[in-house]
Design brief:
Number of strands: 2
Largest sheet: 2 strands, antiparallel
Shape: flat
Radius of gyration: 21 Å
Helix content: 40-55%
Distance between the termini: 62 Å
Number of helices: 2
Length: 106
């Protein structure tokens, strides 16, 4: 088990800074700190691309959680939480299918 005393006094990190430009929004400057120190093994652009993909996934999850009223899960056990999330996904897909059929019928 790790304890505070077992951590090193210093931890070398690599700092990566980049700008995110989205039309219609202010430009954001992102600063990433990583322990992936070797720029040849872990190219800067690859880390930036992975960060952007993760950001899109997180944003998508936030949208789903808000849309499906999943901000707070009601179940207590891990097994029941998995079932609750599955039921939300099934409901979401059924709603999307209904929307598709409604669009195709009109």
């Amino acid at each position: 088990m790790w304890t505070f005393q077992s951590y090193p006094d210093q931890l070398p990190v690599r700092i990566i800074q980049f700008k995110v430009q989205v039309k219609g929004f202010r430009t954001s400057k992102i600063t990433l700190m990583t322990t992936l120190l070797d720029p040849e093994l872990y190219p800067t652009q690859k880390i930036i691309d992975l960060f952007r993909k993760r950001w899109e996934i997180e944003t998508g999850f936030r949208y789903l959680k808000t849309t499906m009223k999943m901000e707070v899960l009601r179940c207590l056990s891990p097994e029941m939480i998995q079932k609750e999330i599955l039921m939300h996904f099934i409901a979401y897909n059924l709603i999307r299918k209904l929307m598709l059929h409604a669009a195709l019928d009109s």
